[in-house]
Amino acid sequence: MKDFKKIKVIKGENSFEIINPTNYPLIGHGAQGAVFKLSEDRCVKIYTNREQAKMEERALKAGQHLSFMPKLYKARSNYIIMEYFNAPTLKEYLKNSMYMPEAIAIKLINILKELKKAGFSMLDAPLRHIFVLENGDLKVIDHVNSFKRQHPAPIKLLRELKLILLKDSFLMHVERLEPKMYKEWEKFFDEKDIDFRKISVSSGGQGNAVNVDSALPLPLIGQGHQGAVYRVSEDKCVKIYSKEEHANQEKKVLLSCQHLPFIPKVYETSSNYILMEYLLGPDLNSFLKKQRSMPEYITRHLLKLLKTMKAHGFKQVDSPLRHTILTVDGLKLIDHVYSFTREQDRPLEMFKDLHLLNFLDSFLEQVKVLDEKTYREWTKTPIPLNELVKKQTYTGPHIKDELNKKIKTPEQIVKEILIRE
């Protein structure tokens, strides 16, 4: 088991690199590091920041007496070995629920009360960090910021329950079972209730991303060096920029191209924000990770999208997979700040993403069959893959568990819609 120490997790200014020469599968990664399964009951979290490792170690040790806290087996300067849960997250568990089960509501209330009693300042947890065991018990992971962030009310929990239409049902249980707690939350959110038009973000955050207020009641769904994206309703989101220049550049692209099928609808703009369509569906990077081979119909849609961009005067002709969303209306492309200003006639970001998924060669072969002229334009000079992948590299076992499931995922449903089209 000690060979997990060969795994390297490196976070650069604009990159995240995982080098995994072992057979331990990657089961999750984020801003703090990456998690690998060691056995049926243990996993290891490897951190990119040693201070964050110390913060989570402190929180886990302080909460070992709590029934919902993962067991801590070993902690060192850059990793922690802890209990692994082979169980659905609460988000998955509640996916088809029409109301919040009282038994789950009671357990969530007790978790929040116990966190407060133990002196934690972050009385909160997103649904994806809560696991439901076979016996119905709940377990909560990711405690790095438990003593750092001030969340006297469950901001993340409530905003995620709102997205799956269970917030009101949960609050009904809270009001009946814990009226004092309910009033405290009500007062907190009344004070925090804010119009998205009054939100501001600033440059200079971690990893070159903008700084945001983590205590805002709106769900943060994206954060980069240009700005932050919040979901404001079921079908709308707002992108708030740190620089007026970036807002104006993207506004020009979106408003002049509303007739193009891959451009999100715009509802309202200002000097530092754009209120636009919220796109329901997986990004293409997540979708393709679950495929055994490059789907030819995806190649056709990408080729059509890129040729449309070029025909309508886009200077940056590219479609990064993380910015390409599969929806019931076809492919939609987000992040257009540099579409009219940055000269780029080949989709280099897309090439890099496909290369990392081992799909670039098959993609180009399909393009050659579908549109030989475009293929020649893209390949007349070598694609600088070595330079591109320096920015982001992942080597190690691929997770393909979803391929073995017989239940249709949202991605599979979208795939069928695109095939019919």
Key features?
single chain, 421 residues, Phosphorylase Kinase, domain 1, 5-stranded antiparallel β-sheet, 17 strands, globular, Kinase-like_dom_sf, Atg1-like
List the topology elements:
Elements lengths: L7 E4 L4 E4 L6 E4 L3 E5 L4 E6 L2 H13 L9 E4 L3 E5 L6 H4 L8 H16 L12 E3 L5 E3 L14 H9 L3 H11 L1 H14 L27 E4 L3 E5 L4 E6 L2 H13 L9 E4 L3 E5 L6 H5 L7 H16 L12 E4 L2 E4 L14 H9 L3 H11 L1 H8 L5 H5 L4 E2 L14 H11 L1
Parallel strand pairs: 2-17
Antiparallel strand pairs: 1-2, 3-4, 4-5, 5-7, 6-7, 8-9, 10-11, 11-12, 12-14, 13-14, 15-16
Please, could you describe this protein's structure?
- The protein is an alpha+beta fold and 421 residues long.
- It has 4 domains: 2-83, Phosphorylase Kinase, domain 1; 90-192; 196-277, Phosphorylase Kinase, domain 1, CATH 3.30.200; 284-420.
- The chain is 34% helix and 17% strand.
- The protein is built from 14 helices and 17 strands.
- The protein has helices at residues 50-62, 90-93, 102-117, 155-163, 167-177, 179-192, 244-256, 284-288, 296-311, 348-356, 360-370, 372-379, 385-389, 410-420, and strands at residues 8-11, 16-19, 26-29, 33-37, 42-47, 72-75, 79-83, 130-132, 138-140, 220-223, 227-231, 236-241, 266-269, 273-277, 324-327, 330-333, 394-395.
- Strands 3-4-5-7-6 form a 5-stranded antiparallel sheet, with helices on one face. It has a 5-stranded antiparallel sheet with strand order 10-11-12-14-13, with helices on one face. A 3-stranded mixed sheet has the order 1-2-17, with no helix packed on it.
- A hairpin with a 4-residue loop joins β1 (8-11) and β2 (16-19).
- α5 crosses α6, α9 (296-311) packs across α11 and α11 (360-370) packs across α12.
- The longest helix is centred in the first third of the chain and has 16 residues, at 102-117.
- It is globular and about 65 Å long.
- This is Serine/threonine protein kinase.
- InterPro entries: Atg1-like, Kinase-like_dom_sf.
